[in-house]
Amino acid sequence: MTKTKKINIKIDGINVSVEEGTTILNAALNANIHIPTLCYHKDLCVAGNCRVCVVELKGAKNLVASCAMPVSEGMEVFTNTGKVRLARKHIVELLLSEHNADCTKCYKNGNCELQLLASEMLTGEHMFLDLVPDQHYTIDMFNPAIIKDDSRCIRCQRCVRTCEELQSVSALGVAYKGDKMKISTFFEHPMFEVVCTNCGQCVNRCPTGALVERNYVDEVWDAIYDPTKHVVVQTAPAVRIALGESLGMNPGKIVTGKMVAALKRLGFDSVLDTDFTADLTIIEEGNELLTRLKRALVDKDKKVALPMATSCSPGWIKFIEHTFPEYLPNLSTCKSPQQMFGALAKTYYAQKRGLDPKNIVSVSIMPCTAKKFEANRPEMRSSGYQDVDYVLTTRELGIMIKQAGLAFESLPDEHFDSIMGESTGAAVIFGSTGGVMEAALRTAYELVTGREVPFDGLNITPVRGTEGEIREAAIKITDVLPEWKFLEGVELKCVVANGLANAKKVMQAVKDGKADYHFIEIMACPGGCLGGGGQPIPTDREIRNKRKEAIYQEDKGMPIRKSHENPEIKQIYAEFLEKPLGHKSHELLHTHYTPRKRY
Amino acid sequence: MATNNNNQIIKTLVDKYGRDRTSLMPILQGIVEQKNYLSDTDMTEVARELDLSAAQVYGTATFYSFLDTVPRGKYVIRVCKTITCDMHGKKLIVQTIENMLKIKVGETTQDKKFTLLQTNCLGWCHKGPSMLINDEVYADLTPEKTHEIIAEYMNK
Amino acid sequence: MSELVQRVDLIFGEYSDQKYKTLAETVGRSNEDIIKDLLDSGLKGRGGAGFPTALKWKFTMEQPADERFVICNADEGEPGTFKDREILSKVPRKVFAGMAICGKVIGAKRGFMYLRGEYKSLLPGLLKEIEIYDETAKKLGIDFKIEIRMGSGAYICGEESALFESMEGKRGEPRNKPPYPTVSGFMNKPTVINNVETFVNVLMICRIGPIQFRKLGTHDSRGSKVFSVSGDTPKAGIYELELGMPLAEFVEEFGDGDTKAVQVGGASGFCVPRKKFKDTIIGFEGVPTGGSMMIFNSSRSMYNVLHNYLEFFEEESCGQCTPCRVGCQQLRKGIEAVKRGDKPVVYLEQLMKLSETMKITAKCGLGQSVANSFSSIVSNFKEEMIY
User: Fold this and answer.
1) Helix and strand tally (H, E) in chain C?
2) Which of A402, B100, B115, C249 is the most buried (most CB within 10 A)?
3) Which one of the listed residues A19, A20, A188, A379 is annotated catalytic?
């Protein structure tokens, strides 16, 4: 490895030595100087277009954008001169002059990066003319998941870079130029009419209120206050390791018990766990994979769709519907854990609790904005009602907890209610890239061989995905039980990818015949659900890594770590579903997909 | 059928210039040359051929003032509105054309023959006012001269 | 013509009898030799920024790469500038020869001319000349192809990195610098991008030698320059003149006797009022220009002139960076508000400060140069702004 060169510079009189190629912005952090930014985001390539981060260089007439300027030997930087301060204030004032700054009517009030800068810079009386009345701003409110309000947009293009670089979707682009320049979908169509997957990564990165989730906070409160309704809530695996961030805690804290306690105090009638249906997904999906393999290997059925791909990530589902519709048969027909839960809440749960399903309001807390769209799909009504009524993001739950005045950090740990509240470590790791694969292997391998997976402490590290990477693994199956003898010696080829840009690469390889996988796990968001579009803001690589550590720590701490050993799972098959892939399962737990236009 | 014809135009252009993104401008220019504007189906077809998103094609097209995304007439008149042409009587030229064609700036005649637009500096500042009709330049304009030119096009 | 305004006949001089004679003579010379001649000639880029051409080529040549490109920037869009059009319609051969010399020196096999869409009528002539070039290149064994790419009506694409983006099929949004084109230009390869006139100058230096070339102009502004003269002048048109002349002499020659101001360098240049004609030198030591000279007489309202420029920038800004996108709107609407009386006269001071911020913070030359005309017009013609 080549040794990286050190560059010595001076920032505000402080000597700093950093690696060659470091930007002034990052070098300044070494001198404990925080330079304000807006268009900059750690996950994205540098744009250098907002110009808020300008600094002065000795000997240079013009200021430079510190996010885009690499250090050079002997450079002398000044971050807080009068010239710099006036320039930054001007820039923020300019942004405010084209910004609909009725902050108290904005969902991002209190969480807006522009608002924060404005308050730091004391932009009391506006310096410049108000341009908003002359702009013809539009608001796109037709989407159940995401609202796009151009009047709050500062054109930093973070969303555009997110959609292109991380997701390879480019549903959002930049259109027109000059004073007319705007962030736009194709032909300014509503978001729901274009290739947007509702992943919400743009929402997570938008510094203002221009892109936000459609929130259902008031609807959920109304349901809670309605005495005729029985409100059940389910919580996704990735919420319990991130919710704390919305409430002032550091990233990487496991807050499962406090989250349950908070939900009970908010007034939900029953606090249950999506992890339960994650375990159920493993049973159904594991059996589905084995069935497909049997049809391919034993029956020599050429029509069986392999590789099989996971179907828990609704952003990924919409992506493949648009981009690779010819591969829809390869998707597992299993609904996502959220939707399995929804279907069971208004059937199995209702029966067990003696409730009329029409009086059940089913709420889910998700790290995801695409889940809002998923819940609204017409096929997600197999209970006879809309299976999941309201989907809230981790952030929305944070808001409800704040509204209720709960001192979150001081809450005692409480347990999920039963039934459908029991889960295993295998379900928890659904929240991270590679988790579904690992959970499925823990169960399928044991089902086929009668032995635990041959990995230390059940930790199948080869499939634990790494952010931004496509991870391939092959697991050789030997000494199988008699009924699975067609799998003897088979090397099960798996691939794990996160972020839709990587998903596209995997599917392209499959399409080009360059890959012979059996099983594909794809999560639409970088790092998996822990980096979901509905997670607390900010989310970046460092924060995702902390959440990931927390998830695997939670798995390790669970008494049961294999889905098929979940007692409530055994119970539901005994009492209700009968057998995996049985008639009831097909009716309630499986679904079909819709080819959509890419253009 | 019109759609097939469109697809043929695009296909020919794509075959000629290639499927790299570097070919996007020549392809879009080629479509505008033949059809006077880029329709949404044209842009989606180009996106498909070049493996781009439709929003990316739209973003590029709308950046350039000659790549129109709304229907234009057979003859697109662009009158220069920049400083020296403005100083030397651009307004009268625009008025002359407006009166002849019975349209305002930005509009297209009902028979889809003419669209009247204004544009930034055409590079004929020493002979202003000037205008483009499609790719043809007309400089040293007077209302009389403009009248003659437009009349000639009207008879085409 | 006045003594100090010297007509020159370098650029538009006739072709030699033999096609591409100078190119044929030059391809045999060593690259170091050619670079040295360019260095000695003192040639600076003719697009307006004035970077020494020899250094640009040298940096590109020395940058390790598997491929390098030569680009001729023919996206002439600066209001009041039309000299490249004239060069391209009269002496395109000289341009292509200059490009081919550049290709040889830096080791490029492909060259492009980015021609603005407004000049599409020049295309047939240029393509014809390229055919002649191709034949010659074949004969001379020059492995350098020239292609033409068209713009489509976007002034900002004259900015070099925006031009690369446009050629790559994207929106013409300028890039962050560094890296500079010499390191990472078209397709992220080292690229020499020069103005049309610069390539002709290169050819002429190769023909007459650096010593002859240096005799023209002044210490900081060597050689001749093609000027585009327009506005209130009886002699509007193209003139090849020596650099370094006082503006007063220029006005004497080209003015209509009632000149109150000259805009030097187009909308992005400076407005010089009558009282400063004497002390203003046209050239890199004084007011630099890409060739645009717009003359205004006392019948003109400088408010209208500025308003026209600002509308131009407002539309032609790429829109990506805050100071330029919003700043241009604020300046235009700001002077309107002062004129209407909706804002007090002191608001002009606020706008002057804003224009200064645009100058030091905008991402590219467009946004940075709006302040030039704004501050020079507002400070010299304040009374016209107010009422």
Assistant:
1) 14, 9
2) B115
3) A379
